[in-house]
Specification:
alpha+beta
Amino acid sequence: MTHLNNERRPETQPGVASAEDGLVILDGPDGVAVTMTAAAAAETGHNVVEAARAAQMQIGTTPGSDEN
């Protein structure tokens, strides 16, 4: 039996994006997959980059650096 841990831990491995039949597929951990239109994927990518920059500033790391 698997015991569920309610503690949320951030994912440290990046998702993988690919294009297929005019759609963008983002594969994440544990079998998570999201299919988006090109426009939705582009805006999502922009939002993720901006959020990553804000998060890095909050913890005092340089954008693009590996804080591990």
